[in-house]
Amino acid sequence: MGLTEYREEIDAIDRQIVELFQQRMRVAGDIARCKQETGAPVLDRDRETEKMRQIGELADENMAQYCKMLYNKILEMSRDYQRRLLDR
Ligand SMILES: O=C(O)C(=O)C[C@]1(C(=O)O)C=C[C@@H](O)C=C1
């Protein structure tokens, strides 16, 4: 495979990432509305700790560090989106 084919492969992967990321953010929005009803805080430290542990388990050993960096960012954006929706 050459550069063009590799880039096409990356483009196809990015289409999936964008779609899945948006799906995840929409579900985070649904969770925000649940939290609004119960008055629960946006940040759930225990859930995030467990999530980061899961990610470390799911990832290949040489990718775990990068997957955790990615999820730190994803969780930050998820909380940001929830706070924006809830206006808090
Ligand atoms: O599980 C929740 O309570 C969520 O709000 C979702 C989520 C996530 O994006 O995974 C976001 C914020 C919380 O701190 C924990 C997890």
From TrEMBL:
Listed PANTHER family: CHORISMATE MUTASE
Designated name of the protein: Chorismate mutase
MF term (GO), any: chorismate mutase activity
Chorismate mutase domain sequence ranges: 1-86
Matching SUPFAM superfamilies: Chorismate mutase II (SSF48600)
GO biological process, one term: chorismate metabolic process
InterPro entries attached to this UniProt entry: Chorismate_II_sf (IPR036263), Chorismate_mutase-related (IPR051331), Chorismate_mutase_highGC-bac (IPR010958), CM_dom_sf (IPR036979), CM_II_prokaryot (IPR002701)
Species assigned in the record: Hornefia porci
Keywords recorded for this protein, A-Z: Isomerase
